[in-house]
């Protein structure tokens, strides 16, 4: 059975070639780009001539189905530009496609953060995701951070081997100057979409409970560091990761509160107007008695 790999891109010149070097074994590579402003497309042309364009959105999910529809083979492998596929995993996927016993394959993903894989029981570095599947057994939805619909009759299988995983270099550069700039810009974009989804009833994030959850993780690793039962490097990495998620869900909560106050997610102008009123009031204090 032939295999198509689909990849959605936006300003991925720092990452795309690393990924493409690890999937030269597939029969077809589909790139759907959101009009990158860097060398992403130029680099991709060295590996495939099947490059398409989709209007730029704040997140990738709506464009996944578009990329999927461009693929021509029976088996589909979906990847992000900041991921890598080790050879031991590619061999396993080729074997699965040839044996043809299953329809949807869940693959482990190892998330890297500030240069190292996340470790620990509360931050599970390895996550199962349906990444390899027959084209008639799965479709993508528009939900941020996932969102697939799997045929209820599909035969699923998990590659339950931590050596056979996708490496996700989650905080690699995506067209910005630094890793932290990239992280916070993505959080600003994604949290606005998440807040809108909460209002529209598409996805309820249960923001407060998640903030408590990540706060407990920070407390756990802080105590482990103090008691010297956890390697400091791992402990601090997990604390920082938890802080980034508290910031993420805190932003969602803040944007929801501002929406309820102003009736719009374009609340920056309202806030600036408030500041201008304060500035005018302070200026008037100096006008008295002039």
From TrEMBL:
Coiled coil: none annotated. Residues 4-139 form the Glycosyltransferase 2-like domain. GO terms for molecular function: transferase activity. Keywords: Membrane, Transferase, Transmembrane, Transmembrane helix. The chain crosses the membrane at residues 207-225. This is Putative glycosyl transferase. It comes from Methanobrevibacter cuticularis.
